[in-house]
Write a structure and sequence with these properties.
By secondary structure, the chain is α/β, with parallel strands linked by helices. The protein contains 13 helices and 20 strands. It has a domain of 218 residues: TIM Barrel (Alpha-Beta Barrel), CATH 3.20.20.
């Protein structure tokens, strides 16, 4: 098996779309020779699913699942476009922040996004294999062995070292040009060529017949006063290049935070991430909700067991929980292996039949437990909302974030790609 084929099926990173029709499930067989399971299930639906309409696929009807409202993501893109007034490079790295790389990217392309940005070359290749035509920038690393894949798949690459000329060598052999964006380190200090050293490399790139410079980028630190200095530094290099007759293409620096902070940071293009999915980069903007964003992801699980406790009885490993009174406890089929962060134990809530129940500090790999407050109406098989899209809910990602100290980024990105995902408009 080839390396790329192997990783396409690797469970922890397998983000390819799976089933669109449950009748096709027979075509996805497990790779018994390497002990890997079939690709995760993704299904497109016409409307919001419910317990009785979810199609059956490569999962148990009692497994946890995720629902994604693509209409909400498209609406968020529209709001971002109005605010930015420039081109949009949608950040779909990390499995589109847990929402599903392929289906979300298709929805964004349908909605007229200008660019897509990924953090790994494999993500960009998956998008091309799925038929995505939008310009794609790989903001992540590459080496000379990746040059052919980048060029053959028409993927633009972020560069900041002389390794860019390895791309040019392969492009020359193919009689084409490699598309690149030069990334400047204006103060973030993570990657990028130091801006004071950038002109020399910029001139070499501009003069190379097999390199096509599409953009000049940097990453802001999200400290507003220093961000202004970073933008000034990027513009300084841009102006110097322009005086020498060099076209640097599109300037881009602002992520969601920069977009909301100042129009001065938007330049020629912005790179929104978290706002596309219905959340804001900080508490201040989350409370103000200036874009009227719509959260797009619901995480659900089912009650798989109910137990009545008498005072003194204990639960879980090391008998970590002891009942001090008569209790009714439900177990849900979801745990930290699914991405539900263990820090949420004792600090989060789930919704069942419209009522709020607290999560006990008993989150294990595949299970968590909730206090049913002696409610005898809850039954095995009932749906529980663990992450909700209703802004008034106690279980939105931002409220869970505030309660637990875990950022919405981490809550969403950490969701296991193998959880079945159902998409609707």
């Amino acid at each position: 098996m080839k390396r790329r084929d192997f990783f396409l099926f690797l469970g922890a990173v397998s983000l390819q779309s799976g089933l669109r029709n449950p009748q096709r499930r027979s075509s996805f067989k497990s790779l018994s020779s390497v002990g890997l399971s079939a690709r995760p299930l993704t299904v497109s639906l016409d409307s919001s699913p419910n317990q009785s309409t979810l199609p059956k696929g490569h999962y148990s009807s009692m497994d946890a699942w995720i629902e994604i409202d693509l209409k909400a993501i498209k609406a968020n893109l529209t709001q971002i476009k109005k605010k930015a007034g420039v081109r949009i490079m949608a950040v779909v790295k990390a499995n589109a922040y847990g929402h599903g790389l392929i289906e979300v990217s298709k929805a964004l392309q349908e909605a007229g996004v200008d660019w897509l940005m990924v953090g790994k070359l494999e993500e960009a290749i998956w998008l091309r294999q799925a038929g995505l035509k939008s310009p794609i920038l790989n903001f992540g690393p590459f080496d000379r062995s990746d040059a052919e894949a980048l060029i053959e798949n028409r993927i633009s690459q972020s560069v900041y070292t002389d390794e860019v000329f390895r791309l040019a060598e392969v492009a020359a052999k193919k009689g084409t040009r490699a598309s690149i964006h030069l990334d400047l380190d204006t103060g973030m200090g993570r990657t990028g060529i130091p801006y004071k050293q950038a002109m020399d490399l910029l001139e070499k790139i501009a003069s190379h017949r097999y390199l096509h410079l599409e953009g000049l980028s940097t990453t802001l630190t999200e400290e507003v006063d220093f961000d202004r200095e970073q933008v000034r530094r990027l513009n300084e290099i841009y102006s110097q290049a322009k005086k020498k007759g060099i076209n640097c293409g599109l300037r881009h620096a602002a992520s969601s935070a920069g977009l909301l902070e100042s129009s001065d940071f938007c330049l020629d293009m912005v790179r929104p991430g978290i706002t596309l999915y219905g959340y804001y980069p900080n508490d201040k903007t989350q409370k103000e909700d200036p874009l009227n964003l719509q959260p797009a992801l619901r995480l659900k699980a089912k009650v798989i067991f109910i137990k009545d406790l008498t005072p003194g009885e204990t639960l879980s490993y090391h008998r970590v929980f002891k009942a001090e009174k008569k209790m009714r406890v439900a177990t849900l089929g979801l745990g930290y292996s699914d991405g539900y962060q263990p820090q949420l134990g004792g600090r989060a809530w789930v919704l069942i039949r419209g009522r709020k129940y607290s999560v006990l500090p008993l989150i294990t790999a595949n299970h968590l437990m909730i206090d049913l407050q002696n409610n005898e109406e809850i039954k095995i098989g009932d749906e529980a909302f663990l992450i909700d899209t209703d802004k008034k809910s106690e279980s939105t990602a931002d409220r869970l974030s505030s309660a637990s100290g875990i950022s919405p980024y981490r809550l969403l990105i950490g969701l296991n790609p193998l959880l079945p995902r159902f998409y609707f408009n």
